[in-house]
Design a protein that fits this description.
Helix content: 10-25%
Number of helices: 2
Strand content: 25-35%
Distance between the termini: 109 Å
Order of helices and strands: HEEEEEHEEEEEE
Structural class: alpha+beta
Number of strands: 11
Largest sheet: 5 strands, antiparallel
Radius of gyration: 33 Å
Strand order of the largest sheet: 6-8-2-1-11
Length: 208
């Protein structure tokens, strides 16, 4: 009678348990690594989406009409415009001193500057905007409605506040001219105001 050459008499239940536990541990570690990588990828994608939405959505909005001011006796151009801004719903306080305002028309474009490097954007008087050079345009905050910190002025536009921004116009902002003013906040989409200066100007008028 032919005898079998296999002999497992030395293979005990303890050894089988050790091998099984080793396989389970390896599988568990591998699963943890895979799940961890998946969670990390998901969180990264979520953060990217949130950042993209924040950059693409508006953080400030225009409130009311854009008003044009002409101070000349027989005005043929706008001296400056006033526009009011507020935070969008659910917005967090924003430092408007970091906002960049630019102007353009058919004669080209330029960036509006804060009146001077040492003053606050909330320090706005007629002399800040009416400069000796009409092409050196400035902008500043001329009024704050519902000011949350009247005793401690700052550059933060806060919820429920409405700030009126005055933006100086260059000499090319004349009658029948189409102008574009862009407001680029530190976070959020650019707000673009495209308006046409009317053919006849008064001291104060809405610009559509």
């Amino acid at each position: 009678m032919r005898r079998s050459l296999s002999d497992d008499t030395g293979f005990t239940g303890l050894e089988a348990a050790i091998v099984l536990i080793a396989f389970v541990v390896v599988a568990a570690v591998f699963s943890y690594v895979v799940l961890g990588a998946g969670f990390f990828t998901t969180q990264t994608a979520q953060a990217t989406v949130h950042t993209g939405v924040a950059q693409a959505s508006s953080s400030v909005e225009i409130v009311g009409n854009v008003m044009g001011i002409a101070v000349d006796t027989s005005p043929t151009r706008l001296t400056f415009i006033n526009t009011s801004v507020a935070l969008t719903a659910g917005g967090t306080p924003m430092d408007l001193s970091q906002m960049v305002i630019s102007y353009s028309d058919s004669n080209g474009g330029r960036v509006a500057n804060v009146p001077n490097a040492t003053s606050s954007i909330t320090d706005c008087t007629t002399n800040n905007i009416l400069t000796t050079s009409t092409d050196d345009i400035h902008w500043c905050v001329s009024q704050k409605i519902n000011d949350q910190n009247p005793s401690n002025p700052n550059n933060l536009l806060e919820p429920n506040e409405i700030w009126t921004i005055s933006i100086g116009m260059p000499s090319s902002a004349s009658i029948n001219q189409k102008i574009t003013v862009s407001l680029q906040p530190a976070v959020g989409a650019v707000i673009t105001l495209s308006r046409t200066i009317p053919g006849a100007l008064s001291k104060v008028q809405a610009v559509y």
